[in-house]
Write a structure and sequence with these properties.
homodimer, alpha+beta, Arc Repressor Mutant, subunit A, Dna Ligase, domain 1, 2 domains, two-stranded antiparallel ribbon, 5 helices, globular, DNA-binding
DNA sequence: TTTAAAATTGTAATCATTACAAATATGATT
DNA sequence: AATCATATTTGTAATGATTACAATTTTAAA
């Protein structure tokens, strides 16, 4: 599927800016920050504003087109791959790697030396799940 | 074990401030932010500075006495419970709950409605694990 | 006590992110 | 094609969590 249709599938109207940002995330599997995306895309599209990057990434996340990753305290990262996988960040170089989830009990950690594992779920707690949205 | 000895065990010299902050984390299992800790402790110890809170939480984390949680983009949270457990944040109320890890393949999600699961590991990648520390 | 090192403090700076209002683009309707 | 309403984009200014830094205070050894 092309990028335009991918956005439409997620109920996102495909503007030029949105396609450029989504394309960037599909082609750069480095879990970039908003600023990294801005710096790179700004070379190609000098009128693109950083606010648009932020707005767009928020919209993409809300519509399930990308993942927002809170891996470290420095800044938020974005992932165009929404399939089921885990992440590992190297404490020394800061790079974020994808890890393949083999089964509920097994994750392929490759040649990384794992020091710590965090599991974070998001959803609704008992109280909040019973409140009506509006 | 008392708080003082807990800190000593983690190679942390137990000053008054450090004991107060560690005590706070042991007694408040709400995954507080640095600011929440500051506001509460400042009532008891009006001379305590926010910088000390940050310095101390950083030291505690480096020495494995507390966990630093990057759960959402707003701010960092801290957990005095370093035992193996998972977290779940309610998207509506923002509260962070502890989840019990029953086995490698099973986490007790209680009555929460889980929407998304993230697994984040920290450690050293292949390149960096072969570099000597100094 | 003297003295050096460690810890704490307050203020100022940093920097990622957001708020906001103006400008532009889009798309339907006449 | 002109008009109009709505959505999108933009630039600037504000926000707010965290950190840098230098001064002060505490600690503990000599």
């Amino acid at each position: 599927m092309n990028t335009k249709d991918y956005l439409i599938t997620h109920n996102i109207k495909p503007s030029m800016q949105r396609i450029a940002i989504m394309d960037y995330l599909i082609n750069h599997k480095t879990h970039p920050t908003a600023d990294e995306i801005f710096v790179d895309l700004n070379k190609l599209y000098p009128t693109l504003s950083k606010t648009t990057i932020y707005n767009t990434l928020k919209l993409f996340t809300e519509n399930g087109a990308v993942l927002t990753l809170n891996i470290d305290e420095k800044n938020v990262r974005f992932d165009g791959d929404t399939s089921n996988h885990a992440h590992m960040q190297c404490t020394r170089c800061g790079k974020v790697y994808d890890l393949k989830i083999i089964s509920d009990a097994e994750i392929e950690v490759a040649n990384h030396e794992i020091v710590e594992t965090q599991i974070i779920m998001k959803g609704y707690c008992e109280k909040c799940r019973n409140i009506n949205n509006n």
